[in-house]
Specification:
Helix content: 40-55%
Shape: globular
Largest sheet: 7 strands, parallel
Structural class: alpha/beta
Strand order of the largest sheet: 10-11-12-9-8-13-14
Number of helices: 20
Distance between the termini: 78 Å
Radius of gyration: 27 Å
Strand content: 5-15%
């Protein structure tokens, strides 16, 4: 008998896993919602019981993060995710609109292939198993080679729990002979309906290039903006809590701080009081040389390490109570690691004159890296929140919360998830925190409610009541500015520093429009430019 090379063996084993998963999914697809829910519940409970064991294994094997925080992630990935999805209707008739005579039927995708990152291996396997099975699918994992032992142990736990609850063998499984060829085999298989890709940028690109439909997470580079009305002590606490959680390996965590100059001294004092260390120019250069590899990617040697360890490796000393390292910055570029994603407790810090300048800095940072991902704002000013929400190129905007925990839905009511989509702007297919509803098709059933003769009847015009036209501002002017942002008065309770900002006041905008004279077809473009010019001041 001819002995097969390892790469060929691994490809064959991958094919067998997909074949088994396909057969298991055909059986699983016949299960009722109640049966599927009972299987998912049992997997969640069993996974939670092993949360500490798996956390310690992952920490020891990868060297990333803190095992105590990984316990929380495993518990979040099991019980918090389960509590959110347990009542969802995902199979069979999931909606029946008897008035409009439309019915929705949940249809599983089939076999899903899931890539597992070394930064969150055990929690990712638990989470992806739950959402895939909840939607009626089978799932086959490709673990990261640097986290194979903890990944294999997690797979053993979820496989055993699924079988105990009545799921068919093969409904959840994973590659055990880890090679690039095995992963490629999974991604290119015609029997795989979807790839759930979480991991490095190269692997995610390979998933999209495979031709198999893919949902991915993307790199984060989330700025944290501290606006002048913020509760500074709480804002600093949230940022440091987030950036030190599991030593910063969650991609939604803050990567830089942006602060208005008028409150910088107070923010600086609070950061020092809560364990931040500001690197001097020489120390920042030493650290920067260690953060990125020659090819411009993050150095895995710094990922998930604590601040004291990082400073020691860079050749300088910090106080024993140091929790995060900060470098003051004024530039953004792919070559500046402080303006990039840093999966460790290191932050760049930018000082801006006002919140409008902070807006531009946020966009610069996100354009540099992290488009579509996350940003966090610390403020009490609702106008600032609305303006950021309308304009910033991200799919998660978090207010007054630790970004790492808020982005995954732990400290917010965003969908609990460990795959955070970046949408089209970030090169992905989904902008969601990915859940079961992203992993099924919805079959539409529509009853006939009108005949072709009905369609031939002339349409009846709708009668719409027209509002009274003001003598000061005509109807066209009102429609251009019909946005609550521009009609929200500054309240008496707003901080004094915000009262002078009349950018959103009705009077200011009306002045900009009326100064152009009556609206005609010829000058409407000038009026729009005047409004936009006012907004950019």
């Amino acid at each position: 008998m001819v002995a097969l090379d390892k790469d060929l063996q691994s490809r064959q084993l991958a094919r067998e896993l997909v074949r088994n998963a396909k057969q298991a999914q055909k059986v699983f697809a016949t299960f009722s919602q109640e049966k599927i829910d009972s299987i998912v519940k049992h997997i969640a409970i069993e996974s939670a019981l092993h949360a500490e064991e798996l956390a310690k294994m992952a920490n020891e094997e990868t060297g990333f993060g803190k095992w105590q925080d990984k316990v929380l992630k495993n518990t979040f990935a099991s019980m918090r995710v389960y509590e959110h999805i347990k009542d969802l209707k995902t199979v069979g008739i999931i909606n029946d609109d008897k008035i409009n005579k439309v019915m929705d039927v949940g249809v599983p995708l089939g076999v899903i292939t899931a890539l597992v990152p070394s930064t969150n291996p055990t929690s990712t396997i638990i989470y992806k198993t739950l959402i895939a099975l909840k939607a009626g699918n089978a799932i086959v994992f490709s673990p990261h080679p640097n986290a194979k032992a903890c990944s294999f142990r997690t797979l053993d736990i979820v496989k055993k729990a699924a079988l105990e609850a009545g799921a068919p063998a093969g409904i959840v499984d994973g590659v055990t002979m880890l090679t690039l060829e095995a992963t490629k085999e999974l991604m290119h298989s015609k029997d795989v309906s979807l790839i759930l890709a979480t991991g490095g940028e190269g692997m995610v690109r390979a998933a999209y290039a495979s031709g198999t439909p893919t949902i991915s997470g993307g790199p984060g580079n989330g700025p944290a903006f501290i606006e002048r009305s913020a509760n500074i002590k709480q804002a600093v606490n949230d940022i440091i809590t987030s950036k030190t959680f599991d030593n910063g390996v969650i991609c939604a965590s803050e990567q830089s701080i942006i602060v208005e100059r008028c409150i910088y001294n107070e923010v600086h004092r609070e950061l020092l009081a809560q364990g931040a260390y500001f690197m001097n120019e020489d120390e920042a250069k030493r650290m920067a040389s260690m953060l990125l590899r020659a090819n411009g990617t993050i150095n895995p040697e710094v990922v998930g390490k604590d601040a004291i360890t990082l400073s020691q490796r860079a050749g300088f000393s910090v106080p024993a109570n140091t929790r995060v390292l900060i470098a003051l910055q004024d530039t953004v570029s792919p070559k500046n690691p402080y303006s990039r994603e840093k999966l460790c407790p290191i932050l760049g810090m930018y000082i801006e004159e006002d919140w409008q300048s902070a807006c531009h800095r946020v966009v610069d940072l996100l354009t540099n890296e992290g488009l579509g991902h996350t940003l966090v704002i610390h403020t009490q000013n609702e106008d600032v929140i609305r303006q950021f929400s309308l304009e910033k190129p991200v799919n998660r905007i978090l207010i007054n919360t630790p970004a790492a925990l808020g982005g995954i839905g732990a400290t917010t009511n965003i969908t609990p998830a460990l795959t955070l989509g970046c949408g089209a702007v970030g090169g992905g297919s989904s902008s969601d925190n990915v859940g079961p509803m992203n992993l099924l098709n919805i079959r539409k059933v529509g009853y006939g409610v009108r005949s072709i003769d009905d369609l031939r009847q002339p349409a009846q015009p709708c009668s719409v009541a027209q509002p009274a036209v003001s003598t000061a501002v005509n109807q066209s002017q009102i429609s251009i500015l019909d946005d609550d942002r521009f009609r929200q008065p500054v309240t008496a309770s707003a901080p004094a520093s915000n009262i002078a900002d009349n950018r959103f006041s009705t009077a200011a905008i009306t002045e900009a429009v009326v100064s152009q004279g009556d609206i005609t077809e010829e000058n409407v473009e000038q009026i729009i430019k005047a409004v936009l010019g006012r907004l950019n001041k």
